[in-house]
Amino acid sequence: MRLQRYLAALMSGFLFSTISAISATSTHAADQNQRNSTPQRIITVAPHLSEIVEAVGGAERLVSVSAYSNYPPLVKKLPVTSDARSIDLERMKQLRPDLIIYWRSGTPETQIESIKKTFGDKSSQDGRLVKVISVEPKKLVDIAQDIETVGKALGTEKIAQKNAQLLRTEIKKLKDQYQNSQKRKVRVFYQVWAQPLMTLNQDHLIADIIQICGGEQLFAKEKLLVPTVSKEAVVNANPEIIFTAVDSPEFKTDWSMWSSIPQLAASQKKAFVDIDGDMISRPSPRIMQGAQKICQAIDRVR
């Protein structure tokens, strides 16, 4: 819409009198100042960040994303300039960004320093300041704050506040239905990886979801965010339900390492649940779909 207004103002300078041309030039200048004050070329450095940008109405401004970004669908056509191990600073510079968004705990420190050194407090080729901002969701509700933060950076506060509030409302509904109920806690094991066997501690965002859903997360007190545990320790803890994330909804996990143990509560209840990784591992509004599935699955085994 801003581009259309710019073209309309420009055309009026040719079509009308000198007075109209002056008016059109003023309109163009004001519109151009507005464009220069808000980012128009955005690079994201984690898959969920393109989803946050979409949630604040800025998807059309994305010029590059990170590896495995797949939502909204238009990002699949954009160049990839980063992954979990590296960033392509030269390609980033060629794309002339005016806003770069990264995930603090999900981006290696060396990458963060490289981005700040290359772009922080510097101007892009067309004279606009390159902003570098970050988000850090620790809890489910923090995603709403991230939406507002990105919306403010993009100048789309109204849509950001609207979607942030919608997310807060959804979270409250989950808490009211599952966490604040009188139902008993369910022992939950979240399997990050099978070989070696890995899980999550209480500081991970997924742990917050499990708690909201009325689950008692096993190994929550471990010091490492993603600790390695033994099969024997899991059996002794006797989870009533086991979750793991999968690459796609069509993928089915081989649960035989657990289902073959008859004394395991999860085996007796046949409570082995695959969750679409995109819907549970990415802190964006879509995570509510994964959270709902976890809550429903926990509720079924009570």
Helix-strand blueprint:
Elements: H1 2-15, H2 18-37, E1 42-44, H3 47-55, E2 62-66, E3 80-82, H4 89-94, E4 99-103, H5 109-119, E5 122-123, E6 129-135, H6 142-154, H7 157-179, E7 186-191, H8 205-212, E8 215-217, H9 231-237, E9 241-246, H10 256-259, H11 265-269, E10 272-276, H12 287-300
Parallel strand pairs: 1-2, 1-4, 2-3, 4-6, 7-8, 7-9, 9-10
Antiparallel strand pairs: 5-6
Helix pairs in contact: 1-2, 6-7, 7-12
Structure commentary:
This protein has three domains: 36 residues, no CATH class; 122 residues, Rossmann fold (3-Layer(aba) Sandwich), CATH 3.40.50.1980; 120 residues, Nitrogenase molybdenum iron protein domain (Rossmann fold, 3-Layer(aba) Sandwich), CATH 3.40.50.1980. The protein has 302 residues and is α/β, with parallel strands linked by helices. Helix 1 packs antiparallel against helix 2, helix 6 packs antiparallel against helix 7 and helix 7 packs parallel to helix 12. The chain contains twelve helices and ten strands. The longest helix is centred in the middle third of the chain and has 23 residues. The N terminus is likely disordered. It is elongated, with a radius of gyration of 24 Å. It has a six-stranded mixed beta sheet, sandwiched between helices. Strands 8-7-9-10 form a four-stranded parallel beta sheet. Strand 7, helix 8 and strand 8 form a beta-alpha-beta unit.
